[in-house]
From TrEMBL:
Keyword Metal-binding attributed: yes
Gene Ontology terms for molecular function: metal ion binding
Keywords: Iron, Metal-binding
Name of the molecule in the record: Hemerythrin-like domain-containing protein
Annotated family: Belongs to the hemerythrin family.
Pfam families for this protein: Hemerythrin
The Hemerythrin-like domain, residue ranges: 7-119
Entry-linked NCBIfam families: hemeryth_dom
Length: 127
């Protein structure tokens, strides 16, 4: 769980919430529980969008020089999360499982690295 911490409490809490929700979502997909998975996916979309909004405001406030790249990664991840919701709406569990794997292995690992850069920049600005 420490790998989800970047040292900014609001971001760390959101990372943990999304991590646990993604785990529950993955379990529901693998159990072929479409209705439960779809409800969780909708919650996941809302959590991701809310988290990205908080980070966007933080980057703007700080004048973060990496904001454009970070925001582009947010957009790609947001699109992938919406693809997950659509796959579940279509009851395509195979595609949903594949998308979850991509989110876990690529998108969120990259974004955690980006969030660490943002957190370090924030700390440096506060000093």
């Amino acid at each position: 769980m420490d790998g989800l911490n970047v040292g900014v409490a609001a971001l760390d809490e959101a990372h943990r919430d999304m991590f646990y929700l993604m785990g529950d979502l993955s379990e529901a997909v693998h159990a072929k529980s479409v209705r439960a998975a779809l409800a969780m996916a909708r919650d996941f979309v809302a959590k991701v969008e809310g988290h990205f909004d908080v980070e966007g405001e933080m980057m703007t406030r700080l004048g973060f020089p990496g904001a454009a790249v970070h925001q582009a990664k947010h957009a790609a991840t947001r699109d992938k999360v919406i693809d997950l919701e659509r796959a579940l709406s279509d009851e395509n569990l195979g595609l949903a499982s594949s998308i979850l794997g991509e989110l876990e292995s690529v998108y969120f690992r990259e974004l955690l690295n980006e969030d660490m850069i943002l957190a370090n920049y924030s700390s440096a600005q506060a000093s």
